[in-house]
Write a structure and sequence with these properties.
The complex is a heterodimer.
Chain A: H1 2-16, E1 19-27, E2 32-39, E3 44-53, E4 59-64, E5 70-77, E6 79-85, E7 90-97, E8 106-114, H2 132-199, H3 202-207
Antiparallel strand pairs in A: 1-8, 2-7, 3-6, 3-8, 4-5, 4-7
Chain B: H1 4-18, E1 24-28, E2 32-39, E3 44-55, E4 60-62, E5 70-75, E6 81-87, E7 90-96, E8 101-109, E9 119-128, H2 135-142, H3 146-214
Antiparallel strand pairs in B: 1-9, 2-8, 3-4, 3-7, 3-9, 5-6, 5-8
Classes of the chains: A alpha+beta, B alpha+beta.
Chain lengths: 208, 218
């Protein structure tokens, strides 16, 4: 009995030791943000990221294995995804750097997925073949997951567009206020400077 | 093979083990860290975290640091605080959104160190929507069969997708409003600009004309 618990426990821990961390964080100008994740050997992991707002929507990304060797490195990327299989057990790090940018602060979305999705309790350990009903339910589940993933992407793209539009709106407003003020001031000063030329003749006389 | 009781034990163990295998990051003791969750309304969010304090004597991190408390703050899209409390070094926070949009979750330790202090390691796991549902609990509470549980999960997923789609409509609407507003601002501004230019030119001419006539220059 005890033996059973332990085999099952280790099995479940291995299977359930999966993680999908979706995180959206702010990256200040000149900032660098690192995230760490323990991955067991031979587990497949996927790192996905996308810059939501800020500057040229780009960021430097570095993925390192436990021995500090670079697995994946990209400079000034807007979005990307990278899958890899862990060669050894240990702490993997994903760093996002904005060190090349001196004034634009950014918002970055990151999804670090490790391993397969954990099975539902009571389903992962059953041995008999799935019935047709069950297997189509599993299929539907997979497709729904795909839909949710695509929705996330869509949402981020939409957020990009919307934030830019809001920016544009504000800029148009400020620019128009500024330019109206500038036009009136220039117009009035022009006239007064011109009048001054004729009122005060000395500089003209002296000039001749 | 194994009794129901043993199974409960398993689920419990897994649940406890969970958080230490989560993603982690480092912050200074006085630093404040914020995360953004853009979510539809009526969506459940569960935040699991665990804080470890850097131990200079061993050069590692202390697995449990009872002295450290974490201040967790959650703000909704209208910048209203929906949750602000001090928790211990390990905790689980859950909240439900009432307005769709960007929810900001901020964490900082209650440390009184003024100059940086030492480093903190924060394990963090944020689960949103149907990911926040613990199916282990659902099975126990409602005694569902495997297939029923699977269907239950599918329903939850579809529910989440529908919410997300409604939220998408809402955002699309906002996006369009912004664009319409930009459009009308550009239009009105060009009209105003033209009017200002014409008025300005006319005023300049008239003003200078009277001025020159008065000065007997023309």
């Amino acid at each position: 009995m005890i033996y059973w618990y332990f085999t099952l426990l280790t099995f479940l821990l291995v299977v359930l030791n999966v993680f999908s961390s979706e995180i959206t964080f702010e990256l200040p100008d000149n900032g660098k943000e690192c995230f760490f994740q323990e991955i067991k050997a031979n587990t497949t992991a996927t790192l996905e990221f996308q810059v939501v707002t800020g500057g040229q929507y780009d960021v430097d990304v570095t993925l390192q294995d436990p021995l500090k060797q670079v697995i994946y490195q990209q400079a000034k990327m807007q979005f990307d995804s990278h899958s890899f299989t862990a060669q050894r057990t240990g702490i993997y790090s994903a760093c996002f750097s904005n060190e090349f940018s001196t004034f634009s602060h950014k918002i970055v979305y990151m999804d670090f997925q490790v391993g397969e999705e954990s099975p539902l309790p009571g389903i992962g350990d059953h041995v008999t073949a799935l019935t047709q009903m069950e297997s189509s339910a599993v299929d539907i589940h997979k497709y729904l997951n795909l839909i949710i993933d695509l929705q996330t992407h869509h949402r981020l793209r939409e957020a990009q567009g919307r934030k830019r539009a809001e920016d544009l709106n504000e800029r148009v407003q400020w620019w128009s206020i500024f330019e109206t003020v500038a036009m009136i001031t220039i117009g009035v000063t022009q006239v007064y400077i011109l009048k001054n030329f004729f009122n005060d003749r000395k500089p003209f006389v002296a000039g001749r | 093979m194994f009794s129901v009781k043993g199974y409960e034990f398993l689920i419990f163990v897994i649940f406890v083990v969970d958080i230490s295998s989560a993603l982690y990051f480092h912050i200074a003791e006085t630093e404040r860290k914020c995360f953004i969750e853009e979510i539809p309304d009526e969506t459940n969010v569960i935040v699991n975290y665990k804080v470890e304090l850097y131990d200079p004597r061993t050069g590692g991190f202390m697995p449990s640091s009872p002295g450290i408390g974490m201040h967790v703050e959650v703000r909704d899209p209208d910048d209203k605080t929906i949750l602000s409390r001090v928790y211990s070094s390990e905790g689980k926070i859950s909240f439900t959104s009432h307005t769709p949009g960007e929810h900001v979750i901020c964490m900082y330790s209650n440390s009184s160190a003024w100059f940086g202090g030492s480093q903190l390691r924060v394990h963090l796991d944020i689960q949103v929507g149907e990911h926040a549902i613990n199916y282990g609990e659902v099975v126990q509470k409602e005694k569902l069969s495997e297939l029923q549980l699977r269907i239950r999960q599918l329903l939850d997923q579809v529910d989440q997708i529908t919410k997300e789609q409604n939220y998408q409509r809402y955002r699309e609407d906002r996006f369009r409003q912004t664009s319409e507003s930009t459009n009308s601002r550009v239009l009105w501004w060009s009209i105003t600009q033209t009017a200002v230019l014409i008025l300005m030119g006319a005023w300049q001419m008239r003003h200078l004309k009277t001025f020159f006539e008065a000065k007997k220059l023309v």
